[in-house]
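Q: Joint fold for the lines below.
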Amino acid sequence: MVSERSSKEFFAVTLRVWRQAGPSASGRFVDYPATNVSPDMSFLELLDVVNDGLTVKDEEPIAFAHDCREGICGTCSCTINGKPHGPGHGIATCQLYMRSFKDGDTIIVEPFRARAFPLVKDLVTDRSAFDRIQQAGGFISVRTGAAPDANSIPVPKDDADLAMDAATCIGCGACVAACKNASAMLFVAAKVSHLGLMPQGQPERDKRVLAMVQAMDEAGFGNCTNQYECSAVCPKLITHDFIARMNRDYVKALFKAKFKPVSSASGGAG
Amino acid sequence: MNLLGALFQSSIGKKLLMAVTGLVLVGFVTGHLVGNLQIFLPPAKINTYGHMLESLGAGLWAIRLFLLACVAIHLWLAFKLTAENRAARPQGYGVEHTNRATLASRVMLRSGIVVLVFLVYHLGHFTLRVQHPEWSEHTFRLADNTMVRDVYRMTVQGFNSAGISCFYLLGVGLLAYHLNHGLVSMCQTLGLKNERWTTGLERASAAFCWLYFLGNAVIPLSVRGWLPVLSGLIQR
Amino acid sequence: MAKLEAKVPSGPLADKWRRHKTEIKLVNPANKRKYEIIVVGAGLAGSAAAASLAELGYKVRCFVFHDSPRRAHSIAAQGGINAAKNYQNDGDSVHRLFYDTIKGGDYRAREANVHRLAEVSVNIIDQCAAQGVPFAREYDGLLANRSFGGAQVSRTFYARGQTGQQLLLGAYSALSRMVGAGGVELHTDSEMLDLVVVNGHAKGIIVRDLVTGVIRRHNADAVILATGGYGNVFNLSTYARGSNATAIWRAYKRGACFGNPCYTQIHPTCIPVSGDYQSKLTLMSESLRNDGRIWVPKKKENRLKKPTDIPEADRDYYLERIYPSFGNLCPRDVASRAAKRMCDEGRGVGESGLGVYLDFSDAIKRLGESGVRERYGNLFDIYHEITAESAYQTPMRIFPAVHYTMGGLWVDYNLMSNLPGLFVLGEANFSDHGANRLGASALMQGLADGYFVIPYTVSDYLAGQKPGSRPSIDNAEFAQAEENVTAMTKRLLSINGKEPVSHFHKRLGRIMWEFCGMARTKPGLELALQQIPALREEFWRNVKVPGSAATLNQSLEQAGRVADFLELGELMCRDALTREESCGGHFREEHQYEDGECKRDDEKFGHVAAWEYQGEDVAPLRNTEPLNYEFTKMSVRSYK
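A: Joint structure:
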């Protein structure tokens, strides 16, 4: 819960930040004292201020990923005091304000850690594995211009709402960072469920789940052990129920792929 | 990827096998407990039951091999998944933080290993009879004069040893703890769970695990005379 | 002097696009794969274009400076997307959407472009629904609509408060599909730093890999820029921190004309600035104005008093007072300027005096706290996160913030700039919104350009280019452009001054906001035109860019972008100074009616100003494209 503190009180904290010059360099924690911290400042704004201070001292600023600063683009990605996106609930790092901390706190800032998210520099990691999973099947194959009238495909409101719950995923990777096994199941499940819940997504439903899970496995993520650390840190509070749904979809698709009759014409050129 | 390949190689396939073999083993230990509780009936009951099982012949071996295969797959996957999971995060965090993963879920491998050791001892004791071969010489005469192995006496004698009783309690206790995460987790893996009934499922699972533990625990405790009412039923 | 041919097809307004499509030159299907097209940017317009062109068979290379195409700032649009579907049976039509957009733009857009936008709006919804975009639905399973931004019909489609995100994810999924299929080669973490022009045609770009620092040349048969708007010239805005003008600005310096740079949209409902460290202004959805009432204290001396202690009689609900028929729902530019006037009178609230109240106490009385929570709960939560104030108990403080730029690179009806082969889509071009954009129209335009315009119009250009005729990257022009980029990088790193990049960005932002923001004056703009070059000179002398060019270097990236803003800001002021009228997002205090409304001068300024670069330290050339209103009558916009 956020304390109702006056914006006048400034305080001081120490940032203990993971510094690593590049993927093959060795990394270490470095302490940066920050004074005149306003409770109304966002955590990333504090990093901006610290970086400006480093710059004028001719030190290299801390590299960190950020963009929209309103919790929707999914770029920001710090693990703060061991928790991806920090101590808040249902927010991304950019929505974390300094009033969540106390005077004298030491705040430990690390990158998201997973083999599938190789470190680029300092707090920046490469999350392109998510894009590769999407490219494997995270779509409905509709050509531009080939769509029927939008209202010709009614979608039951409950399904549309549930699909929207899954679709709110911002692709930040906090689920992977929080998972004890660096598993990407929540991300993939959200994507699979969003499309699988809608009538438009049915024709490719089986193919999609099989392809996306395969791409996920190839990227080197760990396995799900049903501990739900992922959904606990998700900035959009996406539920792990979607993981159960994907498990079911996957198994169904596997068995269908094995036993469903196939047309003898399939595979031939049209 | 073909079906078997996907089951044994994909992440979800492996989890599915873990869940299904786990389910088989839960079924087995539940049935086993029900059989064991015959210890509170006159010795002829459990000895007849034991004899009936032993005389299944090829059928018994089929069941044993099937169960053994389940144990083997469950075990192999446990080690394989754990190794993969560790490899998925080569560099750990400076601060370890857990949001809501239960302790049971975080010690599955360790609780499982203790259960495995217990299982090996238990099989050595009752099935292979290598630990105390002298106990297996006890025989019992059934009503129709058939001489059968006296499982009843073997059990009572076994639990007379405080060490064996303690190990037994530890084994079934950790198994119950293992199942407390395992059962709910299995429902998640099989896609049979959602938040609307998770609480109910978790309660049912906890109740089952407690029943399972208590059901097993009363046997050594009664044998050792610590449960006045039930102890009276045991014939020494 | 650049040739500005709008190439608007002849014939009746409603037939222009249809006729144009049938007359456009086509590329033989077997030849399409011989053409390479570069798409820079992967927001709504860029992703949609890259995916659609690849589907047609062109070889596409797509460049984004983000680590993933899904991060583009289209993702942050909240409200919705307009389309003339008339699913609500409330009298909407293509013509009405066209008319509303033209009027909302204060008669400064091209009629034919806007009509085409309204026509294809219906296809966009079909396309997105088929992609699986989870639009809001009614209980019958059909699409829901709401009325937005003061429109008198319900034509806005939405997906909770995250419409931009869902539409972008739809376009991103189409793009991902084509990447997977090999039709698009995707380059992430890649920033375009120059445009290569060969024999007057855009034929390639120079790109820096932001992770490795490697600079590469890329050639193509056509180059498409879909790189968004330039509102970050103000430093504080609702844009993402990374949003920048570099791609379009470097194209401008290679000869592409910049249309109407001064048209800036200021959104009325944002959370006010709290301190010097601030990096970003957060938008509170316009929908709040449906139930919230905007006021300031009548008396200056009450401005720091607790709002709940100010009696009703001492409050000035100024929008309801000045605009009785539209009230709190008047258009964005009108509401923003009114807030500024209140603050200028010294009645602004909050410590800075730059804020007005948006009060929900009446709505809470009417709907109950739970009713308000149901409609706006998540927005109230965001407000609480940022300010630690509960809008259930005390009014929100809001203030206008830069939100969108209507100006951009000049394009003809085919979305091609005056440089043949260079196409510009979405917010990066100057087209469809005139001097002011209506709510829920940005998403519509980005997707219209990407899905339904460029796939047709690009072939008109390519059909005239021989397959395989694109110049090699070993050409002198490529070498010169690369040299240009390398030299600038080197120069930035070698200055070794005393101030970080942010220092200059903040100062530029303050100048722009003060003199080229919501209200502009001749003396103010003239002053800005002295201050900006001085600041630019200081930047090139005293900026500190640490680190090297051979790794990820965020200071270096930012320095290049701010260097461009320091030039673009000057052009904006120049444009604002020469446009001696007020229209939409451009308000000159000298040109207003007595009630403070925009006074246009259609006679003298009923045209597009398209600025042409003439070289460093040389004044750019102001070209004009007359806007011939054949089908609508330019009238005075009134929301009273």
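Q: Anything notable?
A: Chain B has a mean pLDDT of 93. Residues 58-87 of chain B form the longest helix (30 residues).
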